[in-house]
User: Fold these one by one.
Assistant:
Number 1:
Amino acid sequence: MASPATAAVENLPQVLLLLHPAAFTIFGEEHFTSPKFRFLKAYESSLPLDEFLAANARSVRALLVSAATVVGAGILDLLPELRVIVTTSAGLDQLDLAECRRRGIRIASAGDIYSADVADCAVGLLIDVLRKISASNRYVKNGFWATKGDYPLGSKLCLFQLRGKRIGIVGLGRIGLQVAKRLQQGFGCTVSYNSRKKKNPDQVPYPFYQDVRELAANSDALILCCGLTEQTRHAVDKEVLAALGKAGVIVNVARGAVVDEKEMVRCLVEGEIAGAGLDVFEDEPVVPKELMELDNVVLSPHSAVLTRESMMELARLVVGNLEAFFSNEPLLSEYEDD
Amino acid sequence: MASPATAAVENLPQVLLLLHPAAFTIFGEEHFTSPKFRFLKAYESSLPLDEFLAANARSVRALLVSAATVVGAGILDLLPELRVIVTTSAGLDQLDLAECRRRGIRIASAGDIYSADVADCAVGLLIDVLRKISASNRYVKNGFWATKGDYPLGSKLCLFQLRGKRIGIVGLGRIGLQVAKRLQQGFGCTVSYNSRKKKNPDQVPYPFYQDVRELAANSDALILCCGLTEQTRHAVDKEVLAALGKAGVIVNVARGAVVDEKEMVRCLVEGEIAGAGLDVFEDEPVVPKELMELDNVVLSPHSAVLTRESMMELARLVVGNLEAFFSNEPLLSEYEDD
């Protein structure tokens, strides 16, 4: 017979987890728990997912997902009582939004909590690529400064100034706007942008380009900050890379598939663009092996959102959204279609 | 017999070089030449320096130096006709300024041309240390993301947010002010500073600390941007590092000797401070070997001033100052004591 404490826990409403959320590994599951709900972990079952859901999940009203958890109509059909999806991601491209809307499933995202960190990472990657910080660090740590002389070797100085650079931002949402502010106000760059719609010029003074290729042709660096949609998939293609040109740099903190990765790799290897700072890839965690040897390419493992401070805020928001849902209170960060 | 062209070159006024300037190696000597003067290169002679100067340099009126060329009374005694020193450095700590003043020798420095690049490098190093960009890059390039999982491993998330951090700037000159602008306006940090004198608060709104230790106690990161003087030598000592504390970060784009390097290395190894981004060292190009293995330490080889764009501007300024001197025109960037 279950103890009263166990029975009390078993009576708590369930929050379904399909995959192990990365945030649990990175920051600790204990930060995401609450006395007001308990987790139902599909990934700990030996059953196939559909059998597990058929056996356990027909009464589940809440689902917690990360960026990696794809939720389409098939899963939703197995969860007829589902009313809320809370995601640890700011982007929602893993969710079938139309199906959620049709079924009346509300969505709470991580909202704006990552924007500053992602913007910082974009600027950090850009400075690193232009000034070769990671490559210099490796050079010094290998002991080459004392034995081989100044980095870079040879007469071709491959460190470039940030001031005055023309920055093209693809996707001027919350992250893009923060990147723009840092680079224009802080570093004296000039900013232009592409996005679905031109922003109100009274609020957003940067020049708008309807066409990414044209933006690239007028930029020294393209910084990708857009969501992944059918419109932005491979938005940076062969023609855009050619327009960016031999002195141009790509920074991607959006999603890997916003770029035609194969074509970008070819351009980097053949010197058709100058460098890249990449936090995201088309087939993560697999990274094209050609990039591993290039000093003008800086790679980070989709960690633009990962800081101790943002994880603390995420935990507060996830627990708060789920507790609010189960208490019939307004969600803290409900996503609304625009 | 010399050809007319050779004779014409030999009649040009001489600009003495004691050491091979780094800028010649990095950017190319051809950018620093002029039809109005010629270089007299002591470093190409097999004679000891004093013999070379006694034999060749008694009529030399102009000297071109870099940061590495120490010029004291001994050298100046051998150059009685010297009237101008042009340096490729912004700092003047290699020159005996009192002796130069006493002898009426004018000085033209690189002025403000490096400030933006150095400030960019300081911010880049700070982001790198907080967000572990170089360490992540190495992790991904070693293929560990696909084989070992997310970086950082384990439950202790060691990536930190920049927003809201308390930045203490030591030396609020041209570089320090540009660092302050980037971090406060661009990234939402709060800035305080220490310098020889408190600035006019109408022009400089940041809180002033007379004492570096007290600044450190109230900062998450100390960014060193001061010149090296007897007052600033080892300004960051054991007590300051202890005041900065276990969560604190040091960024040094000033001079290595502003920090007690041995003590800083001990603090980094023993976890008494959180990390460091270092462009300068006490005994360059020798870097303490204890730093080579630390993921929370980012090293660059005194390259904060090195960009293609700043080298182009330097060449314009060096040639312009020397041509102006030989034409009895005002120097482009004359140093004046304050």
Number 2:
Amino acid sequence: MNNFSATYTDQYQLAMAQVYFKKGQKDHSAIFDYYFRKLPFDGGYAVFAGLEDLLEVISNLRFDESDLEFLQSQGFEDEFLNYLKEFRFKGKIYSVAEGDIVFPTRPILQVEANIIEAQIIETILLNLLNFQTLVATKASRIRLVAGDATLLDFGLRRAQATGGYFATRAAIIGGFDATSNVIAAKNFNIPVSGTMAHSFVQSYDDELEAFRDFAQGRPEDCVLLVDTYNTLKSGVPNAITVAKELESRRQKLLAIRLDSGDLSYFAKESRKQLDAAGLDYVKIAASNQLDEYVIKSLLEQQAPIDIFGVGTNLVTGDPDGALDGVYKLACSNGKPRIKISESIFKVTLPHKKQVFRMKDESGKCIGADAIGLYHESTVEEMFHPFEPYKSMNLEKFNQEALLHKVMENGEILIDKRSLKEISDYSMTRLSELPIEYKRFNNPHIYKIGISETLRDEREKLIQASKQKLK
Amino acid sequence: MNNFSATYTDQYQLAMAQVYFKKGQKDHSAIFDYYFRKLPFDGGYAVFAGLEDLLEVISNLRFDESDLEFLQSQGFEDEFLNYLKEFRFKGKIYSVAEGDIVFPTRPILQVEANIIEAQIIETILLNLLNFQTLVATKASRIRLVAGDATLLDFGLRRAQATGGYFATRAAIIGGFDATSNVIAAKNFNIPVSGTMAHSFVQSYDDELEAFRDFAQGRPEDCVLLVDTYNTLKSGVPNAITVAKELESRRQKLLAIRLDSGDLSYFAKESRKQLDAAGLDYVKIAASNQLDEYVIKSLLEQQAPIDIFGVGTNLVTGDPDGALDGVYKLACSNGKPRIKISESIFKVTLPHKKQVFRMKDESGKCIGADAIGLYHESTVEEMFHPFEPYKSMNLEKFNQEALLHKVMENGEILIDKRSLKEISDYSMTRLSELPIEYKRFNNPHIYKIGISETLRDEREKLIQASKQKLK
């Protein structure tokens, strides 16, 4: 699932590349910024994910024989195809650390490469980063409300085809504990978890018999699904019988699972029945169309649920479905570039840049990132990107530079971390963010500003462009 | 991208399989129904897609050495792993033809296999069919409003990671003409299409120079993106200059593309400028957050747009993100099975079944599918699945059986069709559906009923289950 051809791209990248090639511009340098414009889920932050996958994919990106044959059949020219035969990405990438919290309109990642290489990787870069960042952010929001509960990814069956594979990875970065997805568990070294399906219970004439067989077959991590016929009259009583039988063999039922009906009510009634039978150690797992809002509500109602299985809404990043990340040219052949747009909010930022996070003495974020030129070591005063009279003095803050070189000459420079390490890092970073940015309704808006030099550079380019249109 | 391990499944499938194996039930037969409960996009129909991919994947599904090692590390037992080493799907599959229009709560596909094989393929079956059906339906809705306009899939960058690959396939089935996605175009034999990016224009000092180079590089299918600086003052005039230069070399500019601002206004103004310059053959392409509603509105405003590039909303199936398809046990070891639920609407249908589409003498759908037992050759009277007093006499209609055997002993029985053929078939089937089912607002509800025998069989099982709970 991690094997990508360089044809995993949009056709226009190759069309443009051929023109650059023919026009003698193949060695022109380019700098592109990756950023998004709008936070997903109307939230106050996003969790950046997908970087390690992307770097691995990029470092291995090649056109094979069949790719070149296909491109030839599409009218691409031999000389250009010979160039593609030798294609590999030899550029540099600067990036925020995977798992860090990120905000709109400021560079999360910068690509510095020749223009052809930089274009060819655009599509896969957007494809992998947009989606994993979306799902990691969703997972993080669910983790925020779920406290210490165990969170399981159950989404593969409703995922957008093989996108589910990457969704699982991102879910772990955002704070999930385990997944039902076997291939993702295997390849990404994620704890795997599962219970039983209704079909198992149905395949027996008798629920109790089904539970007994399942418990015998998997005594070490047995979770019984109790809602196939009638949760409180049949499922839970039968689970209690089996739990007692396990006790007589010095084994323990791990949990029961509720998958329908009013989860708060059924969890409370099931808990009562279990406790009355002396089974206070048996946990309650719940699933069925969960998301951060349902889980928050269940816990506010003090539903005694220990384990949440989350599927569709997690792995599809519902209700957003996509992060609007873009990849914009900031420099070409050494010259700073902007795109003027009908909307001022879409005007891009020229030049190679650095992003600084403002922190107070205790290490807490004060709620501002400043964008400067790459050679600036700090930003003394930051300006609102679109409202010229708004500015903020930053001299009293500690400034953390966020973009680090992660790839050079196409080689990965950073050590591989486990998903648990990335997830722990993400939690730490999130803990530095004040709670006002984490609430679901109207979260406080994190400030993004630009340095005076960057502002002036952009202004010069805007004026030059206006001049031309006269 | 078409290579799947049998570990592309949920862990509980293997957990249950091991229990079946240990309990001597590995050769027990099972029949599962695939269906969904709710139409996507609040629409009146769905387009079934993903079948050929699924059959190919299933016929090749195996556990390799590394899979078995991983499962061993997860505590699966040696005897069972030996069984998995020889695993291949040897069952039968009955299905509606790919591209047909389908409706909620009735079987679209039935799997008949031993219980272990039937469980192991569940996850990938749901994963591939749910998503492709979602996107093919979205594409079909867009095609319905777009008339003869050219429809291009531009979605890969915002797709849910590699899900975008399958989204492209489904988009073509639903009625799209071409894609920007090179690898999908190559592997699925889809026309590939692309234009140019803003970065290309920005990388030049001068827009006109950029247009000239691009047109020289790709004279045969040149589309110029005109909104980088100023659409009407700069982009379109420069495109006109280049079109005239192409004419002097007996070449033709194919189109201009608009990607921002008010598309209706800019299309009309651009058309005027192009026509005034004698370039009435130059087409206008538009992109930027399009979906069926935006395209419908643009065409109602008579925006002269010939080509629509649709991205995010198509490939993520926005706003739904997932089809709620399920896989439910209908027979186990020869015995009919149901799942009783807290909600009557979720009670499943027992037995191996057939689905009949009712048609009038002209071949038009009358808006009803009836579900009978598999051996019933027609359904004389169909009953509402949940409201016992509602029924409908079907004797006067032509009845078309929809489920056909497409796999036997794990071998594919149907001939591979091109996506164009599947798409044409889909269009034909859709043309048999009256317009009331196709409108976007409150579409007419297609009737689904069950035969008297099926109703009685289900009732017997419900009563037996109730009896047990007493």
